[in-house]
Design brief:
homodimer; about 180 residues; mainly beta; 12 strands
Chain lengths: ~180, ~180
Amino acid sequence: MRYHNFAEVPLYKAFEFIEPGPVILLVTSEDGKPNIMTLSWSVLIDFDPIIGCVLSPGDYSYEILRKTKECVLAIPAADIIEKAVQIGNCSGEDTDKFQKFALSPLKASHVKAPLIKECLVNIECIVTDIIDKYGLFVMEGVKAWIDKDKSEKRTFHANGDGTFVIDGEIKNLKHLMTKWQQFT
Amino acid sequence: MRYHNFAEVPLYKAFEFIEPGPVILLVTSEDGKPNIMTLSWSVLIDFDPIIGCVLSPGDYSYEILRKTKECVLAIPAADIIEKAVQIGNCSGEDTDKFQKFALSPLKASHVKAPLIKECLVNIECIVTDIIDKYGLFVMEGVKAWIDKDKSEKRTFHANGDGTFVIDGEIKNLKHLMTKWQQFT
């Protein structure tokens, strides 16, 4: 492994990082040049995990993802919230975002797009389908990593108006999950 | 209006309640019988709002939503987190969930499914498309309501393991939204 703090997350558990709906950094690579976009429009489609991400043709990453059919979904914690927002406010067309935001690309196992060392979780994904009319990229997670030594574990969510909400209190309601006990 | 605390949310602002990825109560109605399911697999597909919800054929609401093509997406705040989880752990097949969980159905404006009085936000939706292979229901919000007098405004997110995270600190980063200033 390329970074000693990264531990593998079993794939059947990886959906747990997408389900809460955090802001995600979507990393692509084209001709060896990595790029990052900030994404809030994501959804679980199935366990495994199968993840849907909605991009716009106006996003610089859109055509790259269409062409390369692979990416990394990197989940930032609250320690880099400003960087994540700024990444979403410039374009890979004229910006090397890893350099500009002092982020470290790490070689992934299954895809050419790099992991982001500074993120809490990184999920390597293969695009399996594209629903063109909605810009919906269906992707399968093929490898997932967590930074097990990271002290900041709170993720954050976009409110859509330039404000963001950071994870607060965690409520354990496993005892109420009578129908879904196998997931607890 | 049926409930004096409910104020209309302009439709162009309604996406802001879906974007953070909260747990949602999806309300349907079949032959005058309302039902509720708990849903965490949702996504914004476009502003307006166009919202995608992934259901499983195993969900009792799946066929009803396919048939009636309308629903209410009700967003609970943290004051009813236990109820929301319990609603997701029983079936409308043999349970009147409004009665069992002491929730109050309110007549909606555009759809037969009722609003839930105890929720922070209610979005009336029309299903415009169904992507069968993924159980993805594409719906358009046609009317949205907020309980303007509700003191508990924190929503919550499913971690997928029987724990839930309640909204914490709100971070205002509007000054960094240089590219998306029109949304701030």
